[in-house]
Amino acid sequence: MNSLHSPNPVLLVHGIWDTGAIFHAMHAYLEAHGRSVFELNMTPNNGDGRLEHLAQQISDYIDRTFDADQPLDVVGFSMGGIVSRYYLQRLGGIKRVERFITLSSPHRGTLVAYGSFRPGCMQMRPNSSFLQDLNRDIAMLEQINFTSIWTPLDTMIVPANSSLMPVGKDVRVWVPAHALMVSDPRSLQSVSTALSEPLRQRSAIAKG
Q1: Where do the domains of the chain lie, and which CATH numbers do they carry?
Q2: Which of 99, 166, 188, 206 is the most exposed place for a label (fewest CB within 10 A)?
Q3: 3-state secondary structure of 148
């Protein structure tokens, strides 16, 4: 993969109850900084669908939207970060994504998910089998540029430090609310910075 000549296209992946429209501010901000930006709408967006099924929608969208040899950068907000991780770790996305950024994603689950018995919500509970499976080989993400951006003031990701990961880069921004993570200037700047970082060197084995 080679990103020396032009920036990778950026795919923005929304969270629960959302659509790609939530990224209006981020889309405009990144385009103003020279990026080509894309969003998709995953369905169902209310937790009725299992997260691996939403991840397949990401895979299908990427396959039909980009050339097979086009490297990508992915930004996932909240649930979108977890769904994107499944795409990277289980559906082969690790081979074509170069920079991966999550915004306030419940990597170790959120207590708020106990408020619903929808399948996708249950998968985001702490110690769910879904998250345990993803976190078993979390070291896969060391192959790429991975950044977790989160706010200690989050009341949707409980505890907020569930967004902390043992790999990649940890960026804390004091954004006052979960929903503002896709529009607050501090968050936007952090995303732009992460997207501009030099790539990690992949081993021949990692490249497959």
Answers
A1: 10-196 (3.40.50.1820)
A2: 166
A3: strand
